[in-house]
Amino acid sequence: MVEDGGGGEEEEEAAEGEMPATAAVPALQRCNGFLPGKEAAGGGERAAPAEAEAMLAAGGGRLETRLSRRRLAVLAVFSCYSLVNAFQWIQYSILSNVFAGFYGVSFTQIDWLSMVYMVAYVPLILPATWLLDARGLRLTALLGAGLNGLGAWLKCASLAPDRYPVTLAAQAVCAVAQVFILGLPSRIASVWFGPTEVSTACAVAVLGNQLGTAIGFLLPPVLVPNTPNDLDLMAHNISIMFYGTAIVSTLLFFLTGVVFEEKPKYPPSHSQAVLQTMPPEDYSYKQSIINLFRNIPFVLLLISYGIMTGAFYSVSTLLNQMIVTHYEGEEVNAGRIGLTLVVAGMVGSIICGLWLDYTKTYKQTTLIVYILSFIGLLVFTFTLDLGYLIVVFVTGGVLGFFMTGYLPLGFEFAVEITYPESEGTSSGLLNASAQIFGIVFTLVQGKLTTDYGPRAGNLFLCAWIFVGIILTALIKSDLRRHNVNSGIMNLDVKAVPVDSPVEPESTTLKIQSAL
């Protein structure tokens, strides 16, 4: 939306940290006052002209967009508490033999401390995405950060060998927090960042979670060495890790309350300016879900993203077991290999984000990264048992560069092909798919690894990733958000009334060439 104002008002806006977007914003060539993505059913009446006119600047028919300096603080705080949540996810699995000995439970029970993240996500994702759409970004962020801290403090009550149920319950609270975290990168990037930086911002937001996994691979083996003959010392070492995590997560909760706002004063992009003119009462969450599942390219991406990310979750959960099988007593190096895998993936994420912002070649990049992930997992599988840890470090790094680098690609590709549907809803469904595949892959690969060795489990994943390559190749690349931002297409802004008695045809964009 645009407000007319003189120089005094502009100075006030600058003082609040708003600055003009770097690129000229294309004119909105057509707007009929309805919600983006839907024609009025049965030739119904158009929305009030004032709603459409409010989208245009008084001077030249352009949408006014500005970038807020606060966006960097929002991104940084989110990345940090997402980091802590990911750290809490992996801290048990990388020490599976240590925690199995401490609590006197099986490896499968320790694996459930990782899989509870995946199990909790699936039934809670739809309520969480509804909350994001209905109550907004700030409340969702506070819930994620708050539950993250609560789970961390509950773990401090599980520092005894007979308290496995307590640590499982605490991990379940952290798993619920994750539901309010994983769907936010695309929403934060779209709401706060301009069109030339949105993919990079999404990659940085995802990078925070990856960095947490990396630290989770590196730090726990150092803080909690395996001392099976001295459980008191082991409990003391675990307490250092648990209390440190709780203090950091509490600090981040308070920072979230200070830094997060619902949205900037002015939209950062043309596409966001259009979306922000939608009357809230016209939004139908149920219809949005239906539209996404009617979008065939999105359904293909939903499955292929689930396969790739689920495979990453499975490899991360079982990495300690795979390494220790061939390199006994190398728990610390198993953590370092995990660190290498994730850090390489962080580099891959940033490079892919920058590449997408520069080229907008979403499908091509996604397909290439998918194929290279398949090759990387094959190489990792057949070099794991050669007896040279340095080789495992190298192949693990290559695997991580592509497999972890894929994560932000899937988010941004989904937003492009589903615009103007909610970024939180599309991201949430992608993550739900990843959790479902992650649970199945972890259970099956874990069983294959135990019974037949790591190679059998990894080949199982390779077969599924090959299926994902085929599905990715079938996705039709329709970059709707990019086309609106660049002004190369006309946009019909159409309505989807919540209480409409007529079955809508689709809530996706109906765009016509401006040429």
From TrEMBL:
It catalyses: heme b(in) = heme b(out); choline(out) = choline(in); ethanolamine(in) = ethanolamine(out). This is Choline/ethanolamine transporter FLVCR1. GO terms for biological process: erythrocyte maturation; heme biosynthetic process; heme export; mitochondrial transport. It holds the Pfam family MFS_1. Belongs to the major facilitator superfamily. Feline leukemia virus subgroup C receptor (TC 2.A.1.28.1) family. The keyword Glycoprotein applies. PANTHER family: HEME TRANSPORTER FLVCR1, MAJOR FACILITATOR SUPERFAMILY PROTEIN-RELATED.
